[in-house]
Design a protein that fits this description.
The chain is of the alpha+beta class. The chain is built from 3 helices and 9 strands. The strands form 2 sheets. It has a 5-stranded antiparallel beta sheet. The chain has a 4-stranded mixed beta sheet with strand order 1-4-3-2.
């Protein structure tokens, strides 16, 4: 996994006791995804932990992979955007990284693109007595993810998936 740091901490709020704060990931995606795409990358995922030791981690990718220089360039551009837009309270460090081998699958297109690969899927609620599935991605049909689990085709509604990752 490649990582680049912005080289500075962003400080937006200095309360007497900085507590962990909820982050609206969808709002951050709406703000950051177009900027990352304009640079020729896909914003695969983001992770945000705010408070005393805040961290905003972006995972980027593109055909042919991502270099450390790519991560640094995106880090600088997104850092400038965050300075202007000021979407988060508290201080945090911006980190830009490649998604790694166990990358998160967040969109239906991801499940299609990685057909044939092994994946782990966790549902929001149990289905037929289980929430966790591991198997080979077969693809997507409508709004269902097709996963071969123990030699049997399993259909998982995309809207019921809490988290899914490749399992190399």
């Amino acid at each position: 996994m490649l990582v680049a740091y912005a080289g500075r901490a962003f400080k937006f709020w200095d309360g007497p006791k900085q507590m962990a704060q909820a982050v609206d990931k969808e709002r951050l995606f709406e703000l950051l995804e177009p900027a990352v795409a304009a640079m020729g990358f896909e914003l695969v995922d983001l992770d945000a932990h705010l408070g005393r030791r805040g961290l905003l981690r972006l995972f980027i990718d593109r055909d042919g992979g991502v270099t450390v220089d790519d991560c640094q360039r995106v880090s600088e551009q997104i850092g400038a955007l965050l300075d202007v837009e000021d979407p988060l309270q508290g201080s945090y460090v911006l980190e830009v990284s490649s998604p790694g081998f166990d990358r998160r699958l967040r969109k239906l297109e991801h499940f299609t693109r990685f057909s044939g690969e092994n994946a782990k899927v966790e549902l929001k609620c149990a289905r037929d007595g289980r929430r966790r599935f591991a198997g080979r991605l077969v693809g997507v049909e409508g709004s269902e993810v097709l996963l071969e689990v123990d030699g049997e085709l399993t259909r998982l509604p995309f809207g019921e998936i809490a988290v899914a990752r490749l399992a190399p």
